[in-house]
Amino acid sequence: MTAVFATADLIDAHGEVLASCETQFRQFGGRRAFHGPIATIKCHEDNALVKEQLNQPGEGWVLVVDGGGSLRSALMGDMIAKAATENGWAGVVVHGAVRDVAELAELDLGVKALGSNPRKSAKTGAGALDVPVAFGNVVFSPETWLYSDDDGIVVSEEKLDLPGR
């Protein structure tokens, strides 16, 4: 049974142990609530590492992509998101833009981003994997835990016990 949770309830239960992201993301994926351990990428207007990572087994992880907040080009579209779904990723948080938003909404994948842009990004492979990234007054470190729903995103150093409903 999938655990059901609300980030507001997690904050109420765990207080200051959790970091709450102040960045106001939009929901784009078909899975509105998602959680899992964090993998990270830092890149700028180049999605080669995003594609490479999401084509690997995800095993319920959440990929946090720090695109520097750029909305000039999309760091993920429907093809990469479909690969993420097929490879078992729970979700993707993009501090930047995505595209193919109608298709993203149909996928069983959590997708949050700042906005959308139909322009493709570069594909040179520039960027860094598995490094701490920061935005919204939160540091997203590899292997910490992310919980996301319609209210926002919270991060915990350790996995939280969630009630099964």
TrEMBL record:
Protein name: 4-hydroxy-4-methyl-2-oxoglutarate aldolase
SUPFAM superfamilies found in the cross-reference section: RraA-like
One BP term from GO: regulation of RNA metabolic process
GO molecular function, one term: ribonuclease inhibitor activity
NCBIfam families listed in its UniProt record: NOT-MenG, PRK09372.1, PRK12487.1
Family: Belongs to the class II aldolase/RraA-like family.
E.C. number(s) listed in UniProt: 4.1.1.112, 4.1.3.17
Source species, domain of life: Bacteria
Subunit structure: Homotrimer.
Task performed by this protein: Catalyzes the aldol cleavage of 4-hydroxy-4-methyl-2-oxoglutarate (HMG) into 2 molecules of pyruvate. Also contains a secondary oxaloacetate (OAA) decarboxylase activity due to the common pyruvate enolate transition state formed following C-C bond cleavage in the retro-aldol and decarboxylation reactions.
Binding positions for Mg(2+) per the UniProt entry: D100
Keywords for this protein: Lyase, Magnesium, Metal-binding
Enzyme class: lyase
Catalytic activity as recorded in UniProt: 4-hydroxy-4-methyl-2-oxoglutarate = 2 pyruvate; oxaloacetate + H(+) = pyruvate + CO2
Residues binding substrate: G77, D78, M79, I80, R99
Pfam hit, one: RraA-like
Cofactors demanded by this protein: a divalent metal cation; Mg(2+)
